[in-house]
Amino acid sequence: MTFLTIQGIGKRYGGMAALDGIDLAVPAGARMAIVGRSGSGKTTLLRIVAGFETADSGRVTLDGQVLAEGASAVPAHRRGIGYVPQDGALFPHLSVADNIAFGLERGLPGRDARVLDMMDMVELDRRMLGRRPHELSGGQQQRVALARALARQPRLMLLDEPFSALDTGLRETMRKAVADLLRAAGVTTILVTHDQNEALSFADHVAVLRQGRLAQAGTPQELYHRPCDRDTAAFLGDAIVLPAELGDGWAACGLGRVAADTGSRRGRAEIMLRPEQLRLAPASPADPAASPEAACHGRVTAVEFGGAVCKVAVSLLNGHAQDSQPALTVHSSSLDLPAINTHVRITVSGKAHVFAT
Questions:
Q1: Could you read off the pLDDT of 95-107 as tens digits, one per residue?
Q2: Can you give the residue ranges of the ABC transporter domain (predicted)?
Q3: 342 by DSSP, 3-state: which?
Q4: Are residues 174 and 67 located together in one domain of the fold?
Q5: Are residues 73 and 186 in the same domain?
Q6: Is residue 258 part of a domain?
Q7: Does a structural domain hold residue 68?
Q8: Is 58 part of any domain?
Q9: Which tens digit of pLDDT belongs to each residue from 120-169?
């Protein structure tokens, strides 16, 4: 069931369109990530949903209630929406307890108990209740900000790059903890981020914005494996894009004939493979299978060590010249990294994706 509906949202700043006809539907209880490069309009869209900005056109509906229609809008404090900004925006002069309780009316029955429940929910030690924000770590401050937003029992939670200021290890831990917490609470959530890995791991729905327009929306698996175009493919991770000739369930390309979801399409097209779909194995230059005519062999031109996952650049060997095509980037385990100038055999797992245009 659709819980949040965004229809034809447009927003201009002077002569520049920040958003142009955005349509999105967020199911109840879902976690949606809105991603895009800087200036794509993702934060503007979040602020319009929150009520901090007014759209020039379009409609926002939450659980059947129209929150905004053109310039007419319900004030932010009456929308029942929780909001966690990038820096947490805690009040430095208030204690943890007072920060969490800030949105609750004074004298509200059970107010103190609600604060304690929120501390437990975000897994903060109750002994921290009297501390000030500067006495907390970055991760603890974000938990307090989340507790403050949840204390009002919002219908919708908006997260504006809340993990970006944290170090890598803490960011991953916090992301998983927040996702688990919101899932358990059944709160519909929208996360805005420029980090594609964060979006793919946090959300069950992803929307990609590009220059104020919606490029594609769907599940993380759909967008990663079946992006609509090469720009979306490259934004969501490393991508190998090759020209190909399509046949019945296959594509002939620089890697030879590979399996592909061709449907009824035939002829010239562009296909995409993710680096993890390619496997490398040692091959001798004297091997007949590694002759210049064999398209699925190559030479390692660079190795980038990355710990668990490393990047290996491979130039394909073909019937004309060894380096006539751009090098391919392959993901490899650090346990069996090939050396530079090694000849390798390349095999492909799974199917190639065929771009629509």
A1: 999 999 887 878 7
A2: 4-236
A3: coil
A4: yes
A5: yes
A6: no
A7: yes
A8: yes
A9: 888 888 999 999 999 998 888 888 888 888 888 899 999 998 887 777 77
Q: Whole domain around residue 295: which residue ranges?
A: 280-347
Residues 290, 227 share a domain: no
Asked if 312 and 210 sit in the same domain, the reply is no
Tokens of 312: 């290996």
CA angle 120, 124, 127 (to 5 degrees): 100
Query: Of 130, 51, 62, nearest to 98 (Cα)?
Result: 130
- CATH number assigned to the domain comprising residue 303: 2.40.50
The whole-model pTM stands at 0.85
Computed on alpha carbons and rounded to an integer, the radius of gyration of the chain in Å comes to: 25
List, for residues 36-63, the tens digit of each pLDDT value: 998 899 999 999 999 999 999 999 999 9
- The DSSP-derived string for 113-155 is HHHHHHHHHTT--GGGTT--GGGS-HHHHHHHHHHHHHHT--S
DSSP 352: B
Q: Which tokens go with 9?
A: 């949202």
Structure tokens belonging to residue 177: 């903890």
DSSP state letters, 245-289: EE-SSEEEETTEEEEB--TT--EEEEEEE-GGGEEEEE--TTSGG
Q: Which residues contact 20 (CB under 8 A, 6 or more apart)?
A: 10, 212, 213
Q: What is the CATH number of the domain that holds 207?
A: 3.40.50.300
> Which residue shows structure tokens 């309009």?
41
Q: Are 273 and 348 in contact (CB under 8 A)?
A: yes
